[in-house]
Design a protein that fits this description.
The chain is α+β, with helices and mostly antiparallel strands and about 200 residues long. Helices cover about 40% and strands about 35% of the residues. It has a single domain, classed as Alpha-D-Glucose-1,6-Bisphosphate, Chain A, domain 4. Strands 1, 2, 3, 4, 5, 6 and 7 form a 7-stranded antiparallel β-sheet that branches. Strand 5 and strand 6 form a beta hairpin. Helix 1 packs across helix 3 and helix 2 packs across helix 3. The N and C termini lie far apart (about 75 Å).
């Protein structure tokens, strides 16, 4: 009986601490994203590079995609040098694994858009869909695809609140990391300044 009491107490403490950490995660990213007209989560970053012309910015951004979008699920959709536009679609794999009575593996689909002109670039990451693999008991896995806006925290009436809050937070971090990586590629190149500027 005493053992059972400690198991229940320990489980309650874990549940409470996970709930608090999920709330803290949301508060950390509050105001850093918005919903677009299609209900997708969007993050925008403007990169200022006054010393670079449009063609150079475009070339560096395109190189970023060449180095980073190499799997079958991550591909360039639009590549228009005249318009200064690159659009790619990719997946952030295993953004979160939620474990309880069931285990939920969450991937997040995203669209990454780069618009360039002389001296600046606009970077937009859109989180569009989750792919979930749900495993529980002895039955085979269930696969579900949902819009990000259909899940918590955007849809407060949806289920798996803690799991999906953590998936949302981690997908946001990956999207933000993509923006920072593209910014670095535009400002510094994709390998290193020393390598890219060396004589050959």
């Amino acid at each position: 009986m005493r053992k059972l009491f400690f198991v229940i107490l320990f489980s309650s403490i874990i549940t409470i601490s996970f709930g608090q950490s999920a709330k803290e995660m949301l508060s950390q990213i509050e105001g850093k994203w918005q919903l677009d007209d299609n209900g997708n989560v969007t993050i925008v970053k403007i990169v200022e590079v006054p010393e670079l012309k449009r063609d150079e910015i475009y070339s560096r951004a395109l190189n970023y995609f060449t180095y980073n979008y190499v799997s079958g699920k991550s591909v360039i959709q639009i590549q228009d040098k005249d318009k200064g536009l690159i659009v790619a679609k990719g997946i952030y794999a295993n953004v979160h694994v939620g474990m309880s009575l069931i285990t939920t593996y969450v991937d997040a689909w995203h669209i990454l858009r780069v618009d360039v002109k002389d001296g600046r670039a606009r970077l937009i990451v859109t989180l569009s869909e989750y792919e979930k693999k749900i495993i529980g008991g002895s039955s085979p896995p269930t696969y579900v695809t949902t819009k990000v806006a259909q899940e918590y925290p955007i849809n407060e009436n949806s289920g798996q609140k803690t799991v999906m809050t953590k998936a949302f937070y981690k997908a946001f971090l990956k999207a933000n990391n993509s923006l920072e990586s593209i910014e670095k590629a535009i400002k510094e190149g994709n390998t290193s300044k020393e390598i890219e500027n060396s004589k050959w």
